[in-house]
C-alpha cells in the first residue's frame, strides 16, 4: 500500500500493536486517528505524538460504531485507510465448558467488531481514489492455539471474511490487506515480558516494511512457515505446535 499521505483510522490504537503502527505511520507523515475504550491510553498516545487525534470507540457496541464512524467521515473527509486492529484474547477450554461471557465478548469484538466498523466506512472508502482496509488477524488463524480455541477460531473466521471482501472489492479502489502476527510482546495475555514473543518494535518495523510493498498479506518472516500450513495434513503441524507451546518452561 501507499505508506505516506494517508488519513488513517486505527482501532485499538492506544496500546500494543495498534499504538506501534499508529506511531510509525504518524512519523511517516500520515494523518492518524486512533480509537479504543480507555481514554487514558488514547490521551497518553496522542500526547506523545503531537498531531495525532483520538476518538473513544467500543467496537462491541453497534450504535457506538454507527455514531463514531459517521462523525469520523464528517471530521476527516479524506479518510482513506482503516486498520481493524482491536481484539481480545482469553484462555478457554475447548475440552470442557466454555463461558458464555468469553464466547460472546470474543466473537463480538474479534469478528463482528471489524466487520461492523468496515461496513460503516466502506461506502466512504470506495469514494476515495486510493483506499485500504487492513485487518489484524493472527498466525493462530492458520495454526490454532488449543488453549485459546475461541480466539483462534475468531481469527480464522476473520481471515475467511478478508478473502471474500478482497474478492468483492477487486474492481474498486479499496485494497484489503491482512496482517497475521506471531506472538508479539504486548499486554495481550500479559506477554510484555514473554521471551518467546517477538519484541514489539521489531514486529512494527518489519510490518511497516511489508505493508510498503504491493501485497495482500503483510507478514513478518517468522510466520511464513506456519502461514503455509493449511492443507489436508494440517493436523500434524497443529499438534506439534501445541505440544511445543504447552511444554513447561525451563
Ligand atoms: N500480541 C500478540 O501476540 C498478537 C498476535 C497476533 C494477533 N494479535 C492481534 O493484535 C491486535 C492488537 O493486540 P495487542 O497484542 O496489541 O494487544 P493489546 O495491547 O491488548 O491491544 C488490544 C487493543 O484492542 C482494543 N480493544 C479491545 N476491545 C475493544 C473494544 N471492545 N472496543 C475498542 N477497542 C477494543 C484495546 O483498547 P481498549 O481496551 O482501550 O478498548 C487495545 O488497545 C489484536 O487484534 C490481537 O488479536 C496480537
From TrEMBL:
It comes from the Bacteria. Keywords: Oxidoreductase. GO terms for molecular function: oxidoreductase activity. PANTHER family: NADPH-DEPENDENT 1-ACYLDIHYDROXYACETONE PHOSPHATE REDUCTASE. Belongs to the short-chain dehydrogenases/reductases (SDR) family. This is Short-chain dehydrogenase. It comes from Acidisarcina polymorpha.
Amino acid at each position: 500500500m501507499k505508506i505516506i499521505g494517508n488519513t488513517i483510522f486505527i482501532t485499538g490504537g492506544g496500546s500494543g500493536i495498534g499504538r506501534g503502527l499508529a506511531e510509525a505511520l504518524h512519523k511517516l507523515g500520515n494523518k492518524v486517528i486512533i480509537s479504543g475504550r480507555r481514554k487514558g491510553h488514547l490521551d497518553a498516545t496522542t500526547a506523545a505524538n503531537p498531531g495525532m487525534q483520538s476518538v473513544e470507540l467500543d467496537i462491541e457496541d453497534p450504535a457506538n460504531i454507527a455514531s463514531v464512524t459517521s462523525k469520523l467521515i464528517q471530521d476527516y473527509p479524506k479518510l482513506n485507510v482503516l486498520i481493524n486492529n482491536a481484539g481480545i484474547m482469553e484462555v478457554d477450554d475447548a475440552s470442557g465448558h466454555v463461558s458464555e461471557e468469553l464466547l460472546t465478548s470474543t466473537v463480538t469484538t474479534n469478528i463482528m467488531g471489524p466487520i461492523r466498523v468496515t461496513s460503516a466506512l466502506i461506502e466512504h472508502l470506495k469514494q476515495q481514489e486510493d483506499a485500504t482496509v487492513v485487518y489484524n488477524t493472527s498466525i493462530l488463524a492458520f495454526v490454532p492455539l488449543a488453549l485459546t480455541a475461541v480466539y483462534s477460531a475468531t481469527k480464522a473466521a476473520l481471515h475467511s471474511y478478508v478473502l471474500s471482501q478482497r474478492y468483492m472489492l477487486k474492481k474498486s479502489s479499496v485494497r484489503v490487506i491482512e496482517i497475521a502476527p506471531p506472538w508479539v510482546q504486548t499486554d495481550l495475555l500479559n506477554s510484555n515480558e514473554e521471551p518467546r514473543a517477538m519484541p514489539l518494535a521489531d514486529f512494527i518495523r518489519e510490518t511497516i516494511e511489508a505493508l510498503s510493498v504491493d501485497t495482500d498479506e503483510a507478514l513478518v518472516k517468522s510466520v511464513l512457515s506456519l502461514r503455509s500450513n493449511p492443507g489436508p495434513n494440517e493436523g500434524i503441524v497443529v499438534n506439534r505446535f501445541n505440544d511445543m507451546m504447552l511444554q513447561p518452561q525451563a
